[in-house]
Each structure stands twice: as structure tokens, then as C-alpha cells.
Design a protein that fits this description.
By secondary structure, the chain is an alpha+beta fold. The protein is built from seven helices and eleven strands. The strands form two sheets. Strands 1, 2, 3, 4, 5 and 6 form a six-stranded mixed beta sheet that branches. A five-stranded antiparallel beta sheet has the order 8-7-11-10-9, sandwiched between helices. Keywords: Transducer.
């Protein structure tokens, strides 16, 4: 208990300590049943601790006065909207009568909440793209800590939790939640992790961290674009490879046809040689016929005319043979040149088909790497 004469010293000490106690505190002096003096820290206050406010008999302070003993009581959240501990110390006069009480109220904080202002500023700056840390009680946001690179201005201390908030769902499910949020909310993709804080078997608060995933989103988008581009290129290469195979097949058929033409040209030359032989023999027959016609005199004159025509026809046939041979030789030369070009084209088409297969294999490997890059981006 406190002597009435020592109250001023207690008030002086309270004013010194009010902003030094972590989590905040509020001091109050009650005379009979009414607050006559109150001193609250900057970070914590209670409506009931108001000068002029009268207390009900069922309050901790009034019970301490009636029972003439120091009472400490933990008040659940349902009474004042927050968990608090209240210590009430009776004040006695010189006669030993209780004339009031000196009450101290401070928030009953989870250890994480008590240390939030110490670790949160450090932790928020440890992420490459920055981070936003926050804590909530069971109904509203209680602490926030942005980083220099990233902030969530829509989350403010005192804002009520809504069903859309991860903290609200964590409280309802009593399980941690980690999820990705698309860029529609704040312009960049986010990762939100929230965990329940338990005390005496009950959830009393949550702690969450929001990290931007801009780099990961950019990597994922690049990976998806790369994969789509590679898919298109692979399809084009496959089509090119199929065309190369068709060209290769056509070149083989063309090469085969050219060989047949060469064979036909050789057969034409053989026919030309045969015609030359016939022309030579026909010439000899015409010569012999002319000789016999001369021997026969007038009786063989008509036969001589025929013999002369045979010799002329033989001469014409013989003179045609070199022309045919020249033409067939020219055809053969051109065909051989075409055959050589066809062979080169055949080799080139084979090389093109092989190169297409190598390119396709390389693209498949790059596509696989793109998929791995996308997987890595999702883990960032």
C-alpha cells in the first residue's frame, strides 16, 4: 500500500517512467471511486483511465480499495478491446483508512509484439526488394513496419481486419498462410506470409511479412515469353526440317531420273552407231548396184537411178549421224553437269536436315532450361 503523503513522489516517478516502459503504460490516481489524475504513455492509453471517470465496484481498482490490498488482474480482450494487466495499490491516510488507489495498467503483450519495434526495422531492410512487416491483434492491425524500398500504405495501425486480409483468415483457421498475390493489388506481385501467435493455448495475435516479387515476376514473364518463342521457333524448325527431308527425297528422285537420261543418251549413241553402219553398208550396196546397172546397159538404167538414190540416202543418213551424236553428247554433258549439281544439292539438303535436327535438339534443351528458370522464379 501507499501512504497518502507519498502520492506526489509516485506521480513524479510515473511521469519519468511512462515512456520508458516497453509497450506503454498508463498510471492513474483514484480518490474514492473517481480518477483525479492520469498519465499515459504515447503508445498506450485506456478510455477508462480518464480524469473524472467513476469506477464500478466490480473493477480491480475498487476491489483493491474495498479489500485494502494490492490486486493484480489480467483483463481479457472482451472488456476493453485489448488484453491488459492492471495493478491497483490502495492509498491510505494517516489513520490507516483507504482513501483511494494508485492504479497501473499496461498491455499484456506477446513477446513478439513486445520486441516488434526492435527487430522489425532491421528485418524489413534485409530483403533485396524490401519488405513490409505487420502485426495484428484479433480485430485490427496493431503494428506496421515498412522498408525504404517497399511500403503498404493501405495497411495502417488501427485499421480493422476484413475477411480479405490474410491475418483474418489465419485467426479463423488457426494455421499459418503463405500465398502469392498478383499485381492488381499494389502494382507488383507479392508474397504474403502470416503466422498465428499463441499464448496460453489461444491465438492472441498474428505476425505477417509482405515481400514484393517484382524480380521473380519479371523472370517468370521472361521465361514464359522465352518458352513461347522457343516453341514457335521449334515448330518452324520442324517444318523446315520436314521441307528439307522432302527436298532430299526429291533430289534423290531427280538424281535417279538424270541417271536414266544418261542411259537413254548412251542408247541413242548406240542407235546412231548402228545407223552409221547401215548407211555404210547401204552405200556399198548402192555402189554395187550402180556397177551392175552399168554392166546391164540400157536395161539397167532404171535400176541405176534407184542405186543413185540409195547412195544419196546413205550419204544423208551418214551425215545425220554426227549431228545426232553431237546433240546426244551435248545432252549427256548437260545432264552430267545437272547430275553433279543435283549431287551437291543432295549433300546440302542432307546437311540442312542434319543441322535442323541439331537446332531442334538445342532448342529443346533451351526450352527445358526455360522451364527450370520459370520454376526457380516461382521459388523466389
Amino acid at each position: 500500500m501507499i501512504a497518502l503523503a507519498g502520492i506526489e513522489s509516485c506521480k513524479t516517478l510515473a511521469e519519468f517512467l511512462v515512456n520508458l516502459i516497453p509497450g506503454g503504460v498508463v498510471f492513474g490516481l483514484v480518490e474514492k471511486d473517481t480518477f483525479v489524475w492520469v498519465k499515459a504513455s504515447d503508445s498506450f492509453a485506456m478510455d477508462i483511465f480518464t480524469v473524472g471517470n467513476k469506477l464500478n465496484d466490480d473493477t480491480t481498482t475498487m476491489q483493491a480499495i474495498h479489500e485494502k490490498k494490492v490486486l493484480t488482474q489480467n483483463i481479457p480482450r472482451t472488456v476493453y478491446g485489448k488484453r491488459v494487466s492492471i495493478v491497483s495499490i490502495p492509498v491510505i491516510d494517516d489513520n490507516g483508512d483507504t482513501v483511494g488507489a494508485f492504479s497501473i495498467a499496461f498491455p499484456k503483450l506477446h513477446p513478439v509484439a513486445a520486441a516488434f519495434n526492435d527487430f522489425a526495422p532491421i528485418l524489413a531492410e534485409m530483403f533485396h526488394e524490401g519488405a513490409f512487416l505487420y502485426m495484428s491483434d484479433l480485430t485490427k492491425f496493431a503494428y506496421t513496419q515498412p522498408s525504404r524500398k517497399f511500403d503498404m500504405p493501405t495497411i495502417t495501425v488501427g485499421k480493422d481486419l476484413s475477411e480479405a486480409d490474410v491475418a483474418y483468415r489465419v485467426i479463423k483457421s488457426k494455421q499459418p498462410i503463405i500465398e502469392d498475390v498478383d499485381a492488381s493489388r499494389v502494382g507488383v506481385p507479392l508474397n504474403v506470409a502470416n503466422y498465428p501467435l499463441v499464448e496460453d493455448g489461444d491465438i492472441v495475435a498474428t505476425i505477417g511479412i509482405v515481400t514484393p516479387k517484382k524480380t521473380a515476376g519479371t523472370l517468370r514473364e521472361m521465361s514464359e515469353n522465352l518458352e513461347n518463342s522457343l516453341t514457335g521457333i521449334a515448330a518452324a524448325i520442324e517444318e523446315l526440317s520436314a521441307s528439307a527431308m522432302e527436298i532430299h527425297s526429291n533430289e534423290e528422285d531427280l538424281n535417279s531420273d538424270i541417271k536414266e537420261i544418261i542411259n537413254v543418251s548412251e542408247k541413242i549413241n548406240e542407235v546412231s552407231d548402228f545407223i552409221k553402219e547401215i548407211a555404210d553398208e547401204t552405200k556399198m550396196l548402192g555402189l554395187n548396184a550402180a556397177i551392175e546397172a552399168a554392166r546391164a546397159g540400157d536395161a539397167g538404167r532404171g535400176f541405176g537411178v534407184v542405186a543413185e538414190e540409195i547412195r544419196k540416202l546413205s550419204a544423208q543418213s551418214k551425215s545425220t549421224v554426227p549431228k545426232i551424236k553431237q546433240l546426244t553428247d551435248t545432252i549427256k554433258q548437260k545432264v552430267e553437269e545437272a547430275s553433279e549439281k543435283s549431287n551437291r544439292s543432295l549433300d546440302a539438303s542432307q546437311g540442312q536436315a542434319a543441322a535442323s535436327e541439331e537446332i531442334t535438339a538445342s532448342i529443346e534443351e533451351i526450352t527445358s532450361m526455360s522451364g527450370e528458370l520459370n520454376t526457380i522464379a516461382k521459388t523466389l
